[in-house]
Amino acid sequence: NLKISVFTLGPHWCEYCANFMWGLIAQGVKCADCGLNVHKQCSKVVPNDCQPDLRHVKKVYSCDLTTLVKAHNAKRPMVVDMCIQEIEARGLQSEGLYRISGFSELIEDVKLAFDRDGEKADISSTAYEDLNIITGALKLYFRELPIPLITYDAYPRFIETGKIADAEKRLESLHEALKLLPPAHCETLRCLMAHLKRVTEYEKENLMSSENLGIVFGPTLMRAPGLDAMTALNDIRYQRLVVETLITNEDVLF
């Protein structure tokens, strides 16, 4: 996450080649995640494996997923784990779980709590009695990811998978498509799909089938930039099919 930077207040040295950074403006680039300072030329050969510094990760929402988990040395974002744990602890029988929206102001409060307090955020029933606030906060987290959970690069492959009519061939194609996701994205997707499968086990009570959850989560987890309105509208059907297949076959695919 390297960005051109102006270095002031004294001399600065490149942390890659150890040479002085000459000039008055735009002398080099700085990584917004770990704080690394290097020449623009050196940035071309710097390994893309930085360990983000928590001092540079100011929030949870709208933060790149891989950057967030690296900064916290975790497998998945804590907001995902905490919300899922809270939802399952309160029970999965709530009618319309994930379909019914909570008050947007309170969902925004949960977002601010995570951004401010991180894993110390209070999302208990004492703080938020309505479970739909927590499900809404989890959906909002995925909607605000700068790179969607199913990434822009992988999006076309997943959509093509959704177009396959044969269920067995679709499953095979989906298994290959998952390999295109970064590790943190794939692990988070696995965790979410396992949770949503547990939601479907209470379908008689919550009325949320894998198809209904696919309708809710398809556009939330899959977004493609620059699509014309008609293509985006047509893709909704395939987004639903992809998520529905992921939920139903979670134990086989991951």
Automatic annotation (TrEMBL):
Membrane topology: Peripheral membrane protein
Any one of the GO BP annotations: signal transduction
Entry's Gene Ontology molecular function annotations: GTPase activator activity; zinc ion binding
Location, primary (coarse class): membrane
Compartment(s) where it occurs, according to its Swiss-Prot or TrEMBL record: Membrane
PANTHER family cross-referenced by the UniProt entry: CHIMERIN FAMILY MEMBER, N-CHIMAERIN
Protein's name according to its UniProt entry: Beta-chimaerin
Organism: Cyclopterus lumpus (Lumpsucker)
Classification of source organism: Eukaryota, Metazoa, Chordata, Craniata, Vertebrata
Gene name linked to the record: LOC117745994
